């Protein structure tokens, strides 16, 4: 196990026995895992596995049927400076299409008392400086993802929670996001990202939590989870018994 957050003495992210039911449908069942400072943790599983449901609960956008999902020891909604604690991207940029990229960030910065100099920094970090004045409707999917990432970085949060951040990125885009997230984690921050793209994600993460059908089926360092398989994808198929033609 890695060190806990030295500032608070608690786990950066701790999901404990979380179950979420929507009517009769159980989206996730007894999900438990942690994510640690200084590490990029990948939350991986196929479509419908329960990743978004878990992240929504972590961010206080939904309530668990049972269990707890804590950020630095308490629910996200109890944090007094949420944007400085957690930067999140759940749905790409989720920006108004008519808006210019830079205005999307200005709006978030102003409503959270973040100095505008930070906007220039985050645009630079995600490689969007030259496209900042273009309208979001002109952005490619990858550019929207980067804008979402820029928004998540605005508050210089200690924790990043990102739903499918490499979706829609080309190989170069994936490489830049990898560098960015790994550097961010190396500076002592915690990065949790979800993905259904096993091989792309395995190039980014240090630790892995695999979810399938709403249940955690394995977790540990990348090396531990891959163990004697050729790749993370192969490890996943071996763990689930799913054949590679199915579901991915
Ligand atoms: N509001 C809801 N009402 C009913 N069922 C839901 C609701 N939200 C999620 N589910 C169900 O819960 C399960 C988990 O969904 P979730 O979106 O968390 O999966 P996911 O791993 O994020 O998948 P994807 O990669 O497709 O986004 C799915 O079977 C989904 O249909």
What does this 3D model show about the protein?
The chain has 248 residues and is of the alpha/beta class. The chain has a single domain (36-63, 76-240), classed as Rossmann fold, CATH 3.40.50. It contains nine helices and nine strands. The strands form two sheets. A six-stranded mixed sheet has the order 5-6-7-3-8-9, with helices on both faces. Strands 2-1-4 form a three-stranded antiparallel sheet. The protein is globular. It starts with 12 loop residues before the first strand and ends in an 8-residue tail after the last helix. It binds adenosine-5'-triphosphate (ATP). Residues 22, 25, 27, 45, 47-53, 196 line the site of adenosine-5'-triphosphate.
Number of helices: 9
What's the count of strands? 9
**How many whole angstroms does the radius of gyration measure?**
18 Å
Given this structure, which CATH class is correct?
Answer: Alpha Beta
Small molecules in complex = adenosine-5'-triphosphate
Percent strand = 15-25%
Name the CATH superfamily assignment. Answer: P-loop containing nucleotide triphosphate hydrolases
For the largest beta sheet, what order do the strands appear in spatially?
5-6-7-3-8-9
SSE layout and pairings?
Blueprint: E1 13-22, E2 25-35, E3 40-44, H1 51-58, E4 66-71, H2 82-85, E5 86-89, H3 101-111, H4 117-125, H5 141-153, E6 159-163, H6 171-186, E7 190-195, H7 198-202, E8 207-212, E9 215-221, H8 222-226, H9 232-240
Parallel strand pairs: 3-7, 3-8, 5-6, 6-7
Antiparallel strand pairs: 1-2, 1-4, 8-9
Helix pairs in contact: 4-5
InterPro entries: AAA+_ATPase, ABC_transporter-like_ATP-bd, ABC_transporter-like_CS, P-loop_NTPase
Keywords: ATP-binding, Nucleotide-binding, Transport
Pfam families: ABC_tran
């Amino acid at each position: 196990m890695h060190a806990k957050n030295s500032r608070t003495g608690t786990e950066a992210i701790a999901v404990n026995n979380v179950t979420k039911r929507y009517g009769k449908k159980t989206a996730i069942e007894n999900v438990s895992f942690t994510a640690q400072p200084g590490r990029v943790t990948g939350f991986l599983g196929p479509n419908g596995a329960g990743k978004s449901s878990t992240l929504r609960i972590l961010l206080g956008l939904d309530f668990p049927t049972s269990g707890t999902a804590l950020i630095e020891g308490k629910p996200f909604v109890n944090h007094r400076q949420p944007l400085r604690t957690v930067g999140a991207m759940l749905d790409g940029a989720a920006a108004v299409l008519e808006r210019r990229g830079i205005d999307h960030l200005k709006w978030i910065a102003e409503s959270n008392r973040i100095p505008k100099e930070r906007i220039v920094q985050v645009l630079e970090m995600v490689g969007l400086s030259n496209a900042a004045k273009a309208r979001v409707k002109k952005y490619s999917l990858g550019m929207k993802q980067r804008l979402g990432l820029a928004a998540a970085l605005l508050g210089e949060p200690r924790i990043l929670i990102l739903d499918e951040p490499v979706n829609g990125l080309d190989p170069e885009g994936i490489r830049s996001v990898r560098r960015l997230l790994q550097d961010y984690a190396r500076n002592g921050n915690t990065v949790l990202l979800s993905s259904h793209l096993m091989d792309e994600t395995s190039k980014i993460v240090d630790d892995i939590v695999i979810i399938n059908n709403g249940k955690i089926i394995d977790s540990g360092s990348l090396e531990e989870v891959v163990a004697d398989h050729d790749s993370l994808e192969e490890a996943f198929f071996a763990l689930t018994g799913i054949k590679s033609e199915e579901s991915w």
